[in-house]
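User: My notes are a mess, but here's the protein and flavin-adenine dinucleotide's SMILES. Can you give me a structure?
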Amino acid sequence: MDVPKHDVLIVGGGGAGLRAAIAAVEADEHITVGVVSKVYPMRSHTVSAEGGTAAAVREDNTDSHAYDTIKGSDFLADQDAVEIFVKESIDEVIQLEHWGCPWSRDPDGLMSVRTFGGMSVDRTLFCSDKTGFHMLHTLYQTALKYDRIAWYDEWFVTSLLKDDGKICGVTALNVRSGAIDAIPAKAVILCTGGAGKLFAFTTNASIKTGDGMALTYRAGGPLKDMEFVQYHPTGLPGTGILITEASRSEGGHMINREGDRYLSAYTPERMELGPRDMLSRAFIQEMRANRVFEGPYGEYVHLDIRHLGEELIMERLPFVRELATEYVGIDPVYEPIPVRPVVHYMMGGIHTDANAKTPVDGLYAAGEAACVSMNGANRLGSNSLSEIIVFGARSGKAAVEYASEQEFPEANTLSQMAQAEKKRIEEQFLKPRNGNERVATIRRDLQLAMEQGAGIYRTEEEMKTACEAIRKLLKRYEQVEVDDKSSVFNTDLIAALELGYMLDVAEALAHSALLREESRGSHAREDFTTRDDERFLQHSLAYQTPEGPRIEYLPVSITRWQPEERKY
Ligand SMILES: Cc1cc2nc3c(=O)[nH]c(=O)nc-3n(C[C@H](O)[C@H](O)[C@H](O)COP(=O)(O)OP(=O)(O)OC[C@H]3O[C@@H](n4cnc5c(N)ncnc54)[C@H](O)[C@@H]3O)c2cc1C
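Assistant: No problem, the inputs look usable. Here's the predicted complex:
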């Protein structure tokens, strides 16, 4: 197949990718944009976001949003990036409104807002409890209006192409035909989402395997703050399906086995609306004190929304009712919902500046795949949906500006690179090789190592064990056998390629965690229990080397808010 070339190529059709695509075509009326996505754009993980998106509309101000975000981040967020974020998130949600996003409204017609964990005022806009679905729809229908955006739906990116030190496109597997082609571009934006699938128990869709993070890492770019993994305190036992924070924001209570609203001992001022890292740790403390319930899928506590009444539940939380009824057989109008902490979000990701630029020339990143950083050591709920539109838009504009000064790479060079990639994949995965390893087995062992070594509480010994286990898994991965050798919709091959990405990202994560000898935000160590600003008011940067990750550090940017003790 003859593949066209694009000034800007975006990998990812979620909220960040689609917002980047619209911003890029709007920035310059001549350029063309390609959007590559391994699933149909509307199946991206953004679609499953429930609770809402934060912006300082209504009785609020940007300083308060900034302070809450920075305090929530345990002072690791870059404050210049946060200041951009709080200002531009207002413009972005209004822009979405103009494109048709059906924000829920109060009787007076103003956009409704609810409080999320760690936010001091009501600033989370929502569309009932299907916010991500409506935002993604709005972005998709807007993007479809531009015939200068070309769609590569169900194409899987396998590598970044570099010529003379600059990114000049990607290679991608056309999932439908099995062909591997180069897609040339002057600039590439990675909007590939997070990597929750490094863990077995997660709210994340199975496509969230850290592909863009690994692609950058392999291309020489650093991964920033990878040690910070967000556990969400309310997932359904067994499946890990998320029960949105909106259920607590609307007034739900967390209750232990003794019938107590136990958060009074942990986040007395905010109770159920404390930040996610603290609420997840509170669960573990309750578990250690033997005050949780035991069920067929492990320990849990109760999330009780019965007192909200059926009418409010049906208006504001209908999806919560549906999920609880379908997946645990409990109607929350009449019974409390069993919940436990579950891996939800990666604060870390591809190191970028506030214009989404990475240190690799021609490479940009936005959304959950990127680390700007505005989430620091702990993201506040509802800041991610705003982040993807703010920095998605910024990445689109910045990439167009860069692309306008570049030439397309030589066709010959690109076709040679595509041939080399095709050969690599064929030799490694598609030729009969009697490999004695299976994708599912290595993935299971990886998830086990991550759960044991990079959980809610961490120790040096456990993290070292995880680092060693991942090294061994990388070796075993060389022997992996893909049973399906066919070309059409070869999901076995895709799973093998994704596993390669996951192993690289996991190694960067485990090493970054091991070296951070302090407790900050979601990174809670049993052997270094306090925050150490003297040594670690810094971002970690993980670089790939043949011997394993090399970790460097970068100072945090502080503008107006000095670090202080974090209490709720
Ligand atoms: C269940 C759930 C509920 C959530 N609720 C909220 C909420 O209420 N509020 C909030 O602020 N945040 C919420 N979040 C977090 C938020 O939804 C995500 O962080 C955000 O939507 C990520 O958007 P994204 O565009 O960066 O990535 P995604 O939406 O994950 O999109 C990634 C895209 O990259 C593509 N891709 C990946 N790898 C490849 C590859 N190798 N080749 C080609 N394409 C590739 C995928 O096809 C996809 O299109 C929630 C998350 C979950 C899991």
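The chain has a mean pLDDT of 96.
User: Great, I'll file this with my notes.
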